Amino acid sequence: MDLMQNDPRTVIEADRAHVWHHLVQHKPFETIDPQIIVEGKGLRVWDISGKEHLDAVSGAVWTVNVGYGRESIADAVREQMVKLCFFAGAKGTIPGAQFAKRLTEKMPGLSRVYYSNSGSEANEKAFKMVRQISHKHHGGKKSKILYRERDYHGTTIACLSAGGQQERNAQYGPFTPGFVEVPHCLEYRAQWDSEEYGIKAAEAIEEVILREGPETIGSLCLEPITAGGGIIVPPKGYWEKVQEICKKYEILLHIDEVVCGLGRTGTWFGYQQFGIQPDIVTMAKGVASGYAAISCCVTTDAVFEQFKDDTDHLGYFRDISTFGGCTSGPTAALENIRIIEDEDLCGNSARMGDYFGSKLDELMDKHQWIGDVRGMGLFRGAELVTDRGTKDPVSEKQVGAIVADCMAQGVIIGATNRSVPGFNNTLLFAPALIATKDDIDQICTAVDGAITRVLG
């Protein structure tokens, strides 16, 4: 395979000298080479040495939902770039209008799309909408935003203020005031003794609301399935009770679909697995499968209408995202949504997700180190413990060794990392929605071998 025209050594040294990588300690690069990925096709990627890897995490951050090498997306983007690459979002563009229509057709009850270029930014927009609604319609009082322990909503200071992962937040304070944490809902790490754990976890949110004062709460921001905090699927009854509580206290329900959106769980959006109707939905990652930068903040008409007031010169949503005006995003997203639809990738995610779950169950039967497996669709996790009785977590170092062992086998998996103190012990899997049984078998074989070698 002709990987690249440039000399690999030159590229590696340029990277080592000049690139500041995400989420990486660079001290080791003084003696070892940074890994450079140069090509992808389907679920496979090749590094600069020519080694092939099966990518079980869709670009390492759960993004490339339709797989690598989709020429139709690249062709559509090129054609649009030549025609019109950009215009500020105060005006409309053809792909912007077309994708907003196609997207909201998949989201009954929601109707307005605000474009930006990252999940963090989409959540910032939602927070600003909530705050402005508070000022316009509630005298500035209904401004607090609730978020859940273990959830993650982005890297900006405001998003970290709504972040339930302490190690992600460490050393970045002080944070934006007005963000209040509610308890997580991971039954495996139960905080209450209850036969109806989902109901109890939702009622714990209501307790926070009553403590803070319902009249001060503007929104509740939750992931449909907690992602980087450990692949936590809320227990039965949780979401229905959460919806009921939000309606009772007139609190906007903001669902962060940055990870779960566009087929990851087996439906177009994760919240659709639970029969709820949010007021605001944010998304990024799989919206264009990484072929272009795009994120969306989607709202109901009821939310949108609160900003239509020409009697107030500050009454509209006074916000801009420069690269929300780049037409490559909605163009790529239009072709991405066509591929998901035409190839029934939501259906494949559900079917292969069931198979993946069964294979992880088999690994759990074999390895005492696996305390819990959980997930939905092609979004799965396996929590590792030293003892199933005590549920004491294995160390983050051991988890890292398992990830490294899989990498050496040519399989890229993920794990909770520098997120929840003492509980960075969950292996994470999110292969592209085109995954086959053979792909899943290869992933599970690699994990099987790695656990045996690292933990015994």
TrEMBL record:
Keywords: Aminotransferase, Pyridoxal phosphate, Pyruvate, Transferase. GO terms for molecular function: pyridoxal phosphate binding; taurine-pyruvate aminotransferase activity. The keyword DNA repair does not apply. It holds the Pfam family Aminotran_3. Signal peptide: none annotated. Its EC number is 2.6.1.77. Coiled coil: none annotated. PROSITE patterns: AA_TRANSFER_CLASS_3 (PS00600). InterPro entries: Aminotrans_3, Aminotrans_3_PPA_site, PyrdxlP-dep_Trfase, PyrdxlP-dep_Trfase_major, PyrdxlP-dep_Trfase_small. Its cofactor is pyridoxal 5'-phosphate. PANTHER family: AMINOTRANSFERASE, AMINOTRANSFERASE CLASS-III. Belongs to the class-III pyridoxal-phosphate-dependent aminotransferase family. This is Taurine--pyruvate aminotransferase.
